[in-house]
DNA sequence: TACGGTACATACAATTTAGTTCGTAGTTAT
DNA sequence: ATAACTACGAACTAAATTGTATGTACCGTA
């Protein structure tokens, strides 16, 4: 958790307030986050499925990211209250609207990566 | 011939997409980074000017971000070798191509922020 | 009886990032 | 004479993120 009155936290708040761009970037900040969103946009909605679809992610990180995204209003958690447990995550409207933007970002990233990866 | 909707092809697509995307997100990662890019896109090219345009940024962070962006191939540093020193930073082609994507991200962020900032 | 599957929680350690402070050198303005 | 401006560099501290290792509860299967 972020301390309330550190310069670090202050700056984050200032940036989030200052404009839509910094707000968006702060939201996307956090490893695995876009991968989770991407999976949800593909119809992969259960914890275990997402986990299996993101090689390398730990259970803690997945749990944390899902919570983050829920807090931020990008996804909704639906608990079916069954045994064994079944929980589904879905993108909200805001989350869905982000997907095409991520696609553009993805295209740009793929292109730039090709151009700059000459050294490898 | 590879089937269009085989699991293999789907997975490959997902991986390619998520790779370009995660690559892009990693590039954007780092506080103040998009602010610097934004300033450069508006024709604010000198260290001091950028610093004055980003309230709260420290000189160390600005220096660091400029270096990062240069390494990543998004900006170029031009030293005029004068006294007092004059250095200009400019977006590369890759950097310029990112700007419209950032605009979309900005619009999305502004919209989402309005919707979710009821508490303020 | 022991294990695997479900979806997490919690304590802790390691790593990375962000921010503070002080310093450089030459020139110009007060 | 002193301060400010230019664009940084380096050492250091504070804070945040990420990862690891464990435990939880319930059920079905072998």
TrEMBL record, chains A, B:
InterPro entries: HTH_HxlR, WH-like_DNA-bd_sf, WH_DNA-bd_sf. One of its GO terms (molecular function) is DNA binding. Keywords: DNA-binding, Transcription, Transcription regulation. Residues 19-117 form the HTH hxlR-type domain. Gene3D superfamilies: Winged helix-like DNA-binding domain superfamily/Winged helix DNA-binding domain (1.10.10.10). Signal peptide: none annotated. It comes from the Bacteria. PANTHER family: TRANSCRIPTIONAL REGULATOR (PTHR33204:SF29), TRANSCRIPTIONAL REGULATOR, MARR FAMILY (PTHR33204). This is Transcriptional regulator, HxlR family.
